Amino acid sequence: MNQKNSFIAPQLNFRRACLSDSDRLLGWRNDPDARINFFNTNEVSQANHEAWFFDVLQNKNQILYIIETRGCLPIGQMRFDIDGECAEISITIGKKYRGRGYGSEAIRQGTRLFFQENIGVKSIIAQIKNINEISIRSFIRAGFMMSASMANTTKLILMK
Ligand SMILES: CC(C)(COP(=O)(O)OP(=O)(O)OC[C@H]1O[C@@H](n2cnc3c(N)ncnc32)[C@H](O)[C@@H]1OP(=O)(O)O)[C@@H](O)C(=O)NCCC(=O)NCCS
C-alpha cells in the first residue's frame, strides 16, 4: 500500500494567524519550491514581510488561517482576500508535509469554515499557474470546478 492509499483524511484545526506566526509565514513564503508557483516569485525581505503581515492582521477583508494538525502542529497557511460576495484563496503547505493529502483536505475543511464565518461570501476563486498541477488537483479534489483556462493561469471556483 502506498503512502497516499494509506492516508486517512485528518481533522485539521484552523486558527487565525497572530504576530507570533510572522517568522513561520515568512519561511513558507520564501521556500524556493513554493515560490516558483507564486505569481510573484521574488524572495521577500523580513522588513517587507513584517509590513505586509501587519497590514493583513488589520484588514477585515483578509482572513489568514494557520493550518494545524489535531496536535496543534502548524503545517501551513491559507489566506482569503474578500471582495464583496467573492473571495480569492491562496494556500501553502510546509515542505515536509506536502504530498500527504493535507493540501486538498485543508482546502476542503478551510473553505467550509470560511463560508460559515463569512456568510456574505457566496463564492471562492483560486487562480493557479498552469504549471502547478499538484495545486490544481488539490483544489479539484476539494470540490472546486474549472472556471477559466488562460495562457498561464487556471481559474477554479467553489460556490457556497
Ligand atoms: C499545492 C499544495 C497546497 C498541495 O498540497 P499537498 O498536501 O502537497 O497536496 P495533496 O497531498 O493534497 O495532493 C493533491 C493532489 O496532488 C497529487 N500530488 C501531490 N504531491 C504530488 C507529487 N509530488 N507528484 C505528483 N502528484 C502529487 C496528489 O496525488 C493529489 O492528486 P489526486 O487528488 O488526483 O490524488 C502544496 O503542495 C503546496 O503548498 N505547494 C507549494 C505552494 C503552492 O503551490 N501553493 C498553491 C499556489 S495556488
What does this structure look like?
The structure is a single chain. Strand 4 (86-93), helix 4 (102-117) and strand 5 (123-129) form a beta-alpha-beta unit. The radius of gyration is 15 Å and the shape is globular. The chain has helices spanning 22-30, 32-35, 46-58, 102-117, 133-141, and strands spanning 13-16, 62-68, 74-83, 86-93, 123-129, 145-149, 153-159. It is 32% helix and 30% strand. The protein contains 5 helices and 7 strands; from the N terminus they run E-H-H-H-E-E-E-H-E-H-E-E. It has one domain (13-159): Gcn5-related N-acetyltransferase (GNAT) (Aminopeptidase). It has a 7-stranded mixed β-sheet, sandwiched between helices. Helix 4 packs across helix 5 (133-141). Residues 1-5 have low confidence and may be disordered. With 160 residues, it is of the alpha+beta class. Coenzyme A (COA) binds at residues 4, 34, 37, 90-93, 98-104, 128, 132, 134-135, 137-138, 141. Residues 4, 34, 37, 90-93, 98-104, 128, 132, 134-135, 137-138, 141 line the site of coenzyme A.
Question: What's this entry about, in short?
Answer:
This protein has 160 residues and is α+β, with helices and mostly antiparallel strands.
The biggest beta sheet, please? 7 strands, mixed
Strand percentage: 25-35%
- Structural class of the secondary structure composition? alpha+beta
Number of separate helices: 5
Q: How does the overall form come out from the CA principal axes? A: globular
Identify the strand order in the major beta sheet.
1-2-3-4-5-7-6
At CATH level 3, the topology is: Aminopeptidase
* Percentage of residues assigned to helices: 25-40%
Q: Ranges with pLDDT <50 over ≥5 residues?
A: 1-5
Corresponding CATH architecture: 3-Layer(aba) Sandwich
CATH class (first level) name: Alpha Beta
Q: Tell me the series of helices and strands, N- to C-terminal.
A: EHHHEEEHEHEE
Determine the mean pLDDT.
94
Number of distinct beta strands = 7
> What small molecules are bound in this structure?
coenzyme A
| C-alpha Rg (nearest Å) | 15 Å
N-to-C span = 35 Å
CATH superfamily placement: Gcn5-related N-acetyltransferase (GNAT)
What is the total number of structural domains?
1
